[in-house]
Design brief:
The structure is a single chain. The protein has one domain. The protein contains 6 helices and no strands. Helix content is 52%, strand content 0%. It is mainly alpha-helical.
C-alpha cells in the first residue's frame, strides 16, 4: 500500500490527476492528440508524452485552475503547452473564457 501511495497515478490524497479535473483535462489533451490525425507510431507517443513528467499534478497545483469546465480547459492547456514546448507536432490550445 505504501508503494502505491507514492505514485501520482494512485495517490489520490496528494495528486489530483485521478479526480474529475485531472481526468477531464487528460481526455481533452487526448482529443487534441487524435485531431492531429497522426498514428501513435508516427507521433512516437512515448517520447511525445515525456513532458508530462514535468507537469505539476498535486492537488494544490490543480486547485489554482478553479472548478468545473474552466478548470478542465486550464489544466488541459497547461499540459498542451508543455507538450508543444518539447515536440515538433504542435497541438492547438483550447479557447478559454476570459
Amino acid at each position: 500500500m505504501a508503494r502505491l501511495l507514492g505514485n501520482r497515478w494512485t495517490n489520490f490524497r496528494k495528486y489530483g490527476i485521478t479526480k474529475a479535473t485531472g481526468v477531464n483535462a487528460l481526455l481533452l489533451v487526448l482529443n487534441k492528440i487524435l485531431e492531429t490525425n497522426k498514428s501513435f507510431r508516427e507521433l512516437q507517443i512515448g517520447r511525445f508524452l515525456e513532458p508530462l513528467k514535468k507537469v505539476r499534478l498535486t492537488n494544490e497545483s490543480i486547485k489554482r485552475y478553479g472548478r468545473g469546465w474552466d478548470s478542465y480547459l486550464g489544466l488541459a492547456n497547461a499540459i498542451i503547452g508543455k507538450l508543444n514546448n518539447e515536440n515538433e507536432v504542435k497541438l492547438e490550445l483550447y479557447p478559454t473564457r476570459d
